[in-house]
Amino acid sequence: MDRRFLILSLLLQVKSETHHGGILYPRQSETRQMVSLDGLWNFVVPQANNPLQGFDEHWYKRHLKELTDVEVYMMPVPSSYNDITTSGQIRDHVGLVWYDRKFFVPKSWYQIGRVWLRFGSVSYASQVWINGQLVMSHEIGHLPFLAEVTNFLKYGKENLITVACDNTLLSDTVPQGKVDELETGRLVQLYSFDFFNYAGIDRPVTLYTTPKNYIDDISVATEVDGDVGFVDYKITYISDFNVTCRVSLIDKKGNVVAMSDEYDEPYGILEVPNAHFWWPYLMDPNPGYLYTLQVELLSEYGDLIDKYSQPIGIRSVTWTNTSLLINNRPVYLHGFGRHEDSDIRGKGLDLPLIVRDYNLIKWIGANAYRTSHYPYAEEIMDLADELGIMIIDECPSVNTEFFFDTLLVKHKNSLTELIKRDKNRPSVIMWSAANEPRTQYPIAKSYFKEVIDHIKNLDITRPTTIAEAQSVNNVESSEFVDIVSFNRYNGWYANGGNLDAIPLSVVGEATAWHEKFNKPVIMQEYGGDTLEGLHFTPEFIWSEEYQVHLMSKHFQAFDELRAKGFFIGEFIWNFADFKTAQTYTRVGGNKKGIFTRSRQPKSSAHHLRKRYWALARQLYNASVPSDLYNYVAGPVVVHDEL
Ligand code: GCB
């Protein structure tokens, strides 16, 4: 095997060393402490002629700052590394990069129980050392991983953490890619998906403690009946002596509204009379109501051993062959496909950006989005839970072209990790198993049957979908999903410059999907690139006017489809402009956003806002914002009356 591709396979061989238990979000409590390792790390790219330099020279055993034959950069964590420096080589680097930093562990943590190290995600594959010793490896970006590091740390002293991160995508990674070598010998990463392959430690890094005997995982499923809510919970824990689990449900005012029974088993059902249900944004004046499920692990003498508080929402999700229902009320999804993407930090978590995004989502009157084309940061998902935004949660399988067993294993792993992470989120109302896989190939049939069966083995409480680009007549996978989704670019990739055929095409295609599969249908992507500030009347492709008209033609189709009773959602592609690989079809990236990359509205955003609020008023009787329409003219004054 080519020495340059060795790294990824090296990383993967040690995968079994990662933790197999729960992946609960780190939270402080009476029994748990936390230290953030975010901040400025050291960052090094190996010499181009020796990609394995870090391994050859045991970089994990020394401080990167001491290296003299490579440049040592400052690198913020969390962030993608690609756009931070001024080097094109770093932006387009293929293969390994190295990070390290020193950190202090309090003396009081010695014999506190256990210390854990958790990464929100590292893209794409990584190995982690503490004080020169390997502690974990992980493959697949956009998902958290952790390991217990109790015995690797020096207490009351300085410690060194080193991370090797590899962004190489090959035919057996999720998503797939291919590496080519230019005549100059430089490696180039190729991929068919349409967003920049950002990499690095892009989400928070946390060190936290648990007692030796601890709560490992919490799983919750909720139901509603009239105004009663039911919370079905299961707790897993690690303990070397007998313990009980006391579970209390606490409302927003701090009142305990339900508790586990006297036996305090690690499973049970809480009944909540007059429950505040979790409602989607716009369907209720108080959307996104969250309770706290407080779990206490107690010794047989009643002493507190461990405590963890999990936010939960009480709601039901059900579906038929024509509709999707939350708390037994049909919902119509109106929102976006999105990306984690912004200037400079790439896919790195950025709190100002994500709060701005949710403010725009609320401003525009959307009630849903899909995490196209990978799981988003937990902090982003937390806000969806809190604000009542419905999420179609997608795993990182995008544009898969070649199907084989080792890939299937990784694809299923990504879903296992995603569902483990997001299973308790009320905002997650559907799992998306893939975006635009090449499901025209016969082999895709057995592959996706297994993928969907796998999801169903892990979670039967939510419907499944795949965002399809194939035509209704040659798709091999839609028979397995609960909800049919399709992406189509009428007036853009098909019939660019001609908008008049859109309503007929969209109505015809959506109806054909429903007639063939007898399932509810969502249009997951439609849209057209638009250069902010480019204006033409009559509308002309790439102008703001063209995007507005393209949307209006789709709105006509959507209204016709809604009247037919099986059409349950419209998602404009995309929420905001985003960066892609360099290609002559993309001017500085994909410009299909209705917001610019810096999150300012194009004309289309104002247009979409009027529709989404009109839907909210029509469907849920929501009161529309006072600034939706600008004042134009008062009542007509008849001359004779003067
Ligand atoms: C698609 C893909 C999306 C692209 C979009 C486009 O079908 O799902 O990732 O960005 O088309 O703009 O071409």
- Mean pLDDT metric: 95
| Proportion in helices | 10-25%
How large is the share of residues in beta strands? 25-35%
Q: How many strands appear in the DSSP assignment? A: 30
Strand order of the largest sheet: 23-24-25-26-27-28-29-30
The whole-angstrom Rg is: 26 Å
The profile of the biggest β sheet is: 8 strands, parallel, barrel
Main location: other
Keywords: Glycoprotein, Glycosidase, Hydrolase, Lysosome, Signal
Pfam families: Glyco_hydro_2, Glyco_hydro_2_C, Glyco_hydro_2_N
EC number: 3.2.1.31
Overview of the molecule:
Helices cover 20% and strands 28% of the residues. It is an alpha/beta fold and 642 residues long. The protein has an eight-stranded parallel β-barrel with strand order 23-24-25-26-27-28-29-30, surrounded by five helices. Strands 3-2-4-9-6-7 form a six-stranded antiparallel sheet, covered by helices on one side. β25, α6 (405-422) and β26 form a beta-alpha-beta unit. α6 (405-422) runs parallel beside α7. The mean pLDDT is 95. (2S,3S,4S,5R)-3,4,5-trihydroxy-6-oxo-oxane-2-carboxylic acid binds at residues 194, 373, 435-436, 469, 487, 525, 573, 590, 592. Its EC number is 3.2.1.31. Residues 36-211 form the Glycosyl hydrolases family 2 sugar binding domain. GO terms for molecular function: beta-glucuronidase activity; carbohydrate binding.
Short descriptors:
EC 3.2.1.31, 10 helices, 20% helix, single chain, 642 residues, binds (2S,3S,4S,5R)-3,4,5-trihydroxy-6-oxo-oxane-2-carboxylic acid, globular, eight-stranded parallel beta barrel, Ig-like_GH2, alpha/beta, six-stranded antiparallel β-sheet, 30 strands
